[in-house]
Amino acid sequence: MSETTDRISAIRKVLVIKRWLGIWKWRNEDYKWSMIKRIYPYLLYLPFTFTYTALMWVEVIRSQGVEEAGNVLYMALTEFVMIIKVINIWYRRQEAFQYIDELERDEVYKLQNKEENHFWKREQKIFQRIFYTYITGCVMVALTGYFSVFYQETYELPFSYYVPFDWRTPKFYFYAWTYNVLAMTMCFLPNCLLDTMGCYFMFHIALLYRLMNRRLLALREAPEVKAIPELRHLFQLHKRVRSLTKQCEILVSPYVVSQVVLSALIICFSLYRVVQMGKSNTGGLATTLQFVGVMIVQIFLPCYYGNELTVSANQLTNSVFNTNWLEYSVTTRKILNCYMEFLKRPVKLRAGMFFEIGLPIFMKTINNAYSFLALLINLSK
Question: Alpha helix (H) ranges present in the chain?
Fold first, then answer.
């Protein structure tokens, strides 16, 4: 039964898209295509993503006043975070690939019965729905920005950047708009897919901890003869999952640090743009408000899944206590006691050396964004 269960079904399609977007390792890198596959990401990102982000920062530097800079800065900071994510996955491409490959293929994570299969499939589908909704939200922000400019009385770009020619003419506007659309598409798609991947790393580890909790609770009425082999397997599984947790921290730490540290400023400048824009630019207002909503979700999701990982791991102590340990022999009870002492060390993901990934840091980020916005509004008066 377990052989038919796709253990990474929630991100199977995401991996395919990421390969074609140049942010995931190809499974079979034969000699004939290996060189093309290595240079393909650079050919894809240098003319669009990296150049486009650089042009945004040129526009920020050339801006005259806080209001003009704010119209570009919120997106320039977003793209800067996205570049950090792309460079991180390029740098750790082999580790990330092996990480997912182990979760998918290693027999130690094999599901044991029909109930576990049903539980696993259900949770994978829930994750899939959440992130398909998130990706759809990102697409809607981009599409609103792309096409709302056609309803403006003057020539405007969907997302401001420095254009080295006069684009406010019927002849040249199409070129500036087309590059804007292509470059922004090559920015937001990798961004939301890398968010999906980072959250999936944490989600899958949390799911393994929840699976161990279920197996421990299943021993509530089990005799010692049946429980000992299962406990031995659980101890081995826990050791592997703790190791995976450390690997997960290494993989997601750079992107979570950059996302959380700069998100307060991104939300601040986005809302400041809304305040300054008023109702004069309906399309830009709708795009920015949608962007703020997506950005809040983007911060919330890694914090939520990091928190879920910690909570699921910490529940193991209660699950061990709820086994049928009173009926076990002294030797088995001593082993369980040692295991519970080991579980006293909390499992927490840290983003670098700065903070723990969890819901408290999300609330702090939102509070910082509000404080920065109030300060910016006061300074502009």
Answer: 12-20, 31-45, 51-62, 66-91, 93-105, 114-148, 170-217, 224-277, 282-314, 316-321, 330-343, 359-380
CA dist., res. 281 & res. 152, Å (int): 8
Taking a C-beta distance cutoff of 8 angstroms, is the pair 118, 214 a contact? no
pLDDT at 2: 42
Residues contacting 289, CB < 8 A, separation 6+: 274
> Nearest CA to 300 among 272, 267, 268?
267
Q: Is 351 helix (H, G, I), strand (E, B) or coil?
A: strand
Nearest to 245 by CA among 201, 307, 283, 181: 201
- In the numeric block, which tokens belong to residue 281? 């630019």
Cα separation, 320 vs 339, in Å, equals 9
Distance CA 288, CA 280 (A): 13
> Cβ contacts of residue 251 below 8 Å, gap of 6+?
88, 92, 95, 96, 99, 198, 201
DSSP assignment, residue 345?
S
**pLDDT for 278:** 64
> Residue range 224-228: average pLDDT?
83
Phi then psi for residue 28, to 5 deg, are -115, 100
Question: Cα-Cα-Cα-Cα dihedral of 119, 122, 127, 129, to 10°?
Answer: -170
Residue whose structure tokens are 């086994």: 323
- 4 or 264: which leads in pLDDT: 264
